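Before going further, learn to read the protein records used in this course. The integers have meaning only within a learned vocabulary of local backbone shapes. To see the layout at work, look at the sequence and tokens printed below.
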Amino acid sequence: MGSKLAHRVCRAVVAVFAVVGVLAAQNVTVPALLNGVEGGGGTSIPFGSNQACRIQCIYDAAELPWQGPRALTAIKLRADNNTPNTAMAAKGWLQISVLVSTTDKTALTASPVFADNRGADATWVIQNQLFQLPAQPALPAGPRPANIVFPFATPWMFGLTPATSSLPPPQNLLVEFHIHSQPSGAYRLDNLGGCSSAQASFGSLGPACAVPGHPGVTVTGDPSMLAGSSYGWSIANAAPNAPYFVALDVTNQGGLFGNPAWPLPYPMFDPANPAQQSPALAALGYPAPDCWLNITPVTLLGGVADAAGAGIALGAIPPGRQMLGQVFYAQAVSFAQTANPLRIITSLGRSSTVCGPLGVARVYAFYNNLATPPPPPPTSGLVQVGVGFILDVQ
């Protein structure tokens, strides 16, 4: 029995190390949503200076592309490519230390005090090593490869406690760089700092739904839609100096006002006789030929167009990571005295998708290590939420 038990234990240990080996060999991007996607901004922090720097980045567990334990053997950063077809010179040599840790801090609770963000398993995986940041060739649009490599002296295991029904899940990830010294020179990293919101037009619109002699009214959204922030929809080609509003909903499906007999998009006229109003809008008394309701108006944001027929409507996007991926559907409606009997024109619908911010924060502080006498490294720094390295772990 003893030999059988020992054999089973041996096989289990071999299996565990095999899994760890596979996990260590995989390159995965943190935050996971930025896999193959250029970040919303570039940053010169911490490598675009000649000063020493301490910087921590905290990644909420929800942003990690793995669950349970994972062996880390290196961190690989991406250089910025927000300005495509632009080369970047190498920079070296930099004296760098790197610490990794789990942490109970989140992006929203990050402390300005570096030590407060570290967990009990905080480990210096690189200590006072010299590195050269590689030259980056001019590339077309899209993320650069993660080729700024920092190999660990020894592997480090994230989350030895797996997520089960009886045990707590692994905590959030903290990555800390201490640049003890670096030469002058620019060097930008790919960085969170915004995101590009997916947008698309939808619905129906006819050519007669316009101010006579002008294009039809349009609505477009801001490039970046962030949870917990204000967001603007821009209106163009509305009736000059006339009131307008932007109608909003979280769906463009189903029936107008929930009635399946009036499927969206719904005409603001009788298709069989455009001079008559449609059944759902009979109470309005007049038709608007070629105009359609592409959503059910649930919320209205209003304003008055300028002399060029332009305007903007601002709304607040609810906070919380659960908003990521939520689509908001908008349609512009403008009062236009000469357009049709109803004196209203509408736009195509426009969808915008919440793309951030992700659960990432950074804490950093520069200091002059060349001063005489040299100052001690800072113990606290500036906290910025929604900003941080985009990295691969190996």
Remarks:
- The first strand starts at residue 28 and ends at 30.
- DSSP finds two helices and 23 strands in the chain.
- Helices lie at 2-25, 114-117.
